[in-house]
Amino acid sequence: MVQSLGLYGAIGNLVDKLDSIRRVVDGFAQLHPLASAAWAVASALYLVITNQIRTDQAVVNLAGKLSESLDFALDADMLRERLRSIENTVARLFNQITECCLFIREYTGKGFVARMFRLGDQRKIGAFIQSLAETKLAIDQGVNIHAAIVTIRVAAQVNQLYLRTLLQPDITDVYGRRSCLEGTRTSVLRDITGWLLTESSQNILWLYGTAGSGKSTIARSIQDYMLSLSRLGAYVCFERGKSTPNGVIRTLAYQLASYDSQIAESVIAALADSDINVTPIRNQFEVLHARPLSATTVTIPGPVVIVLDALDECGDAISRKELLRVLEGFTRLPSNFRFLITGRPEADLHKAFTTSTWSRHVRPFEVDCNSDETRKNVLDYLHDELRELSEPYEDSELQPIWERNIGMLAEAASGLFISASTAVRMIEASDNPFVTLKELVSGDTRLSQLDELYTTVLQSSGIQWEKPASVSRFRDIVSFMILRKAPLSDSIIDGILGLPLECSSRFMLEKLRPLVGYERGEPIYFRHTTISDYFLTSCRKNYPWSIDIDPQHYFFAGRCFSTMEESLRFNIAGLDSSYARNDSIPGLEQTILSNISPSLQYSSLYWAKHLGDCESARGASLLDALSDFLKKRLLYWLEVLSLLKFKGTDKILCDAGRWLSSSSDLDTTRFLKDARKLLNTFHEPISESIPHIYLSMLPLMRFESITAEHYSRHLSHHGLTVTRHGARKASRQLKTLEANGVRFVHTTAFSSVDGTQLVSGSDDGSIRVWDIESGELTYMPATKHDSPVSSLVLTSDGKRVISGGRDSSVKLWNLDDHSEETLGQHEAPVLSIAISRDDAMIATGSEDGAVKIWHLGQKTDESLACPNHILSVLSVAFRPGVDSNWLASSSLDGSLRMWNVADGQSKDFTLAEDESWVQTVAFNLDGSCLICGSDNGQIRIRGVDDGAVLRILSGHSGAIHSLHVSSITGQLLSGSQDRTLRVWDITTGAMVCEPIVGDGHVSSAVWSCDGQHIASASGGLITLYDTAIAVSESPYNTSANPIAIDSPLSAAIIASDNSWIAAGSTNGVVRIWRRASDGTWGSPKCRSGHRDHIWSAAKSPDERRFATGSADSVRIWSLERGSLVVEPLVIKVEFAVRSVAFSPLPGSRDLAVATLIGVAMIWDSETGKLVRSFGKFPFHCTSVAYSPDASMLAAGYWDGVVRCWDVNTGDIIQSLDPHSSSPDPILSLAFSCDGKIATGTQRESVRIWDSKSGTLLIDLPHVHTNQVFSVAFSPDGKYLVSGCWDNAIKLWDADTGESLMTSPRGHTKRVYSLVFSSDGSSIVSSSGDATIKIWDRAKFSSPAPVLREDGWLVDEQGRLFMWIPPSLRASLLWDAAQLDVVGLPFATRLEFPDRFGGDGWRRTWTL
User: Fold this and answer.
1) Which of 683, 740, 1173, 1212 has the fewest CB atoms inside 10 Å of its own CB, making it the most exposed?
2) Cβ atoms < 10 Å from Cβ of 525
3) Where does the source fall among the domains of life (predicted)?
């Protein structure tokens, strides 16, 4: 019985019975809630089923409404009479019926239960029925309506700009592409649309045919129809010479994502971990299509049509090879994604679509030019196109002749629409259409022979072929259309060619209308690709219209330079003020249109591409033009690119540099190279504000750039003074490569072939390939290691990369065909990798101590295992030369081993006492020496036979992370934790140039194979250096300055007479500067000793000693007239020291120390003996300070309390406790002369206490934005200064807590220490930016421009004063309160006039 009721009846019966039972058991406490719950669930289910049955009935009703909507067609005679007036409405009805049928097909394809969980179906059905009713009413009333139909698809807004930025799609140019004439191609269109909208096992339709057969016209008609149904997912049309396979997948993904928000979400999610623009197209397909479309197939109902038009014009057979492999993946996509692909039956395309293994999923469809329907369509097309021209002959004796000739013309076209359309344009362009038509069909002319047709068109075009000037103008215009780098309009052509109004290209283009699509001001195009082929065919050299394209390359490159020479000028947009960004200027778009002509835009963007088409050896005049451009108009060109918001300036100059590289013009080459370097530094301000090309770039860089120095001759500073103190070495840095989303680059290697590519491995598991000339990322595989890439090598041909990752895998990447494979696995993360000189063997070392050998080219399941180390294998290296079977390996267990991988021999080398382990190993070129970089910063050169140390290379102050020997010079490159790169002569042990200082710990440093570049990885950045600048001919004097000086300065003190400054740094080095008689600070004397961060420094009362404290020790340095004279006294403290302070009593030797074990101590600074310790707490003691009378020692602790100790008894006298709800750790403290204590805390606060009463006098909560690492009172106790890790320095009234500053002041990186001069007039600060700044305390209240993190100096209103490049920011002096800067070998001082920039910027240029 239950079965007969069906699901609906059965559930209804269940609900009734449960309700009855529920009422009966109402009094039973245990049963009633259970019965109620069962009834509630069953009732809810019953309601769902009821609603679904209603929805099913609504679908039946919808089907009935579809039938009713066609009742108007029952009276055929009336339909014929009314159809013309309601044609649009009827078309809308048919489209709506199609969409409704697709919905019903989708709906009924689901089972009853599945349909119950579909949301919104009833609402959609209601919308369908309402749309049908509105359309039916309009038909009954004889009204045409144009409203869109109701579709199944739910549209949601998509951020197309964001998608365009991510995917960088190719722009599909559909201008001039026409649809089929109404009433033509009906059977073809019916068959194709029917197939596209019908489910089948085939999801690709291959529409092919000969040139001119109308494939693209059919595709455009399909596009229009599917667009009207909201079923067009994507439409891409290709153009020969302009379209390449590389962008196809990204372009389709962009259009599909724009079509549907669900696809967009999936695509954006897929892009989160991938730089898709350099990913191979096969991987692009998986990331952008296979996964997103498979994920959304359930929620995107009905067919989604994707059109690829003219695939044969996308590259050539070779470049299309990979794309055709990808197209196979289309057959695996969900069946509702339907593809229409058109093209000529080129061999590679036709084979793929008809005979490949996946061709069963493809429906071939040939456009038959010889069919009766096609020939009739051509005739209909001719009648329609020539209707207006035939009107004069109607009802005359010429009409039958005209009609007969039309028929003959259709027959002569042989079913080719391109032939018919070309003939139409020719007839339309003539002054006697009747005669032209008669001539076209006279004799034995067959329009299907396109060459003959084009010849006829040109002969009768009206162009004066007998006149050389006319022929020359024709060739220039047509060759420009062929060689163009972007769409052309007549105005661009006129501007580039320099054609006056009376000779405008439009006159020639009008005559060429049969062959050229042309409307004034619009993009011009050849009506068919065969037309450009026709002009270039060598067999037509005797025709006046034939084109020798080679000299035209040189001509157009020259014309681009001429156009820029004529049009570029200073302040081309007439900008009024330098204070504002380009984007904030009102009416800027109109300003651009008014001042930058289309031809100037074209020339500015594409001159280098035209230059690249020429041979520099044959282009002497172009060399002169390029030199002239660089030295006279470069800055004006930058203005144009800035206004156009063009980001590829360096790419243009890179293209020019490649062209110039084969010339002998060294002066222009040098100038261009310098210009690229300069513009790479200033690309940000140039793109943001044009005036700062002149106000920022030139005055700041004239000291070090030949380009800036050259143009500065024409600069009037109007009161601005820029002074450079000291000497800044020529910057070795070429450019910085930055990968999106990468925090750490672990390993790098140059391509071994020509050195033009660099491969990197990152913490995101990715392998990236970079073009070092342009700095562009050129390739990144879609697949990655599952963990960071720790090491990689390249084969000698540069085609394969082998990488080891912390996911324990060893992978091989082929850079040629972009294939990937996993060679094998370790049991633990792979840390190091090496390759033998002959590429036969790969060695890998892992974290579990294992070393394995892999044989390339041999498919073996097991790798050769070698004797294990006990702990992690940090480095491996094959010995070059005849004994290439020898491998060196070093381990965290302190072992250093060489062993023979062929016979298993091994030998262990003993490390020095001060070496814990060898971090990295390498061999010299002949393999006679093993080079070992240690954790202590030393490099040892060892003999390979016995491991004897031949020489030690000293200079680094941190662990050596990278060693690499140049294959050209044999010089050694080392990279260290101390942020420096150093180049060594291995035979002498001398450094051959000054250290190269980077932005952070160096994880990898490598030579390019040609020896021209060095690449260094630090953090997430890769920096490229020019070895021509980096490596000098004379050895660097390491004894004069053994340590790189620009490391963060973490603690500084100044002599009471301001004659010297001493500072400790984060790399453990102590530096001392003496002031010269002229007031300048000389080069520092540097002493190493500490092996860790120096946190604090203090001077003795007599200033003959000073102390430094770090994690490893306290060191007391002796001074004689500001010079270090003896080795320091070393006090070994059990735990890290964070603060030191001398007793202020004259003659006292006491030194107070704060340690991280929670103990404050006093040591004898002469004997190194412990005098007293104060307490021991379970939290850090971070700072100490003596009271002015030395009777009290204040110590700050991590619990937020300052404890004041009696120096003599060791008792706590006072506890300064803010009693906050959670501890606010004390990081710094200071005593004033009147007994107040100031503290700086981790939570951004400054407090002042009375040390005797314990009263909190002033509380300044959250006055900084980071931890306050230093506080200091002025000698008279009136002022307090605080320094923070937010880079800021703030000055306070110590009595009131009032801020005494009007403008923010500080450093470019965190402030570590602060101290007043003895007279209180100046403040000395040390910073992580490697500088010490001396400030005028009295001028802190004066306003000054503020240097923001983005490099802009701005006034109090946020107006742009000047942009400062990163290399100058730390040592820049621009504020009257800044007296001096110490630490770097140079400084730049800016002295601004009372009024700088603004509307006066226009008067700065005098050229």
Assistant:
1) 740
2) 18
3) Eukaryota
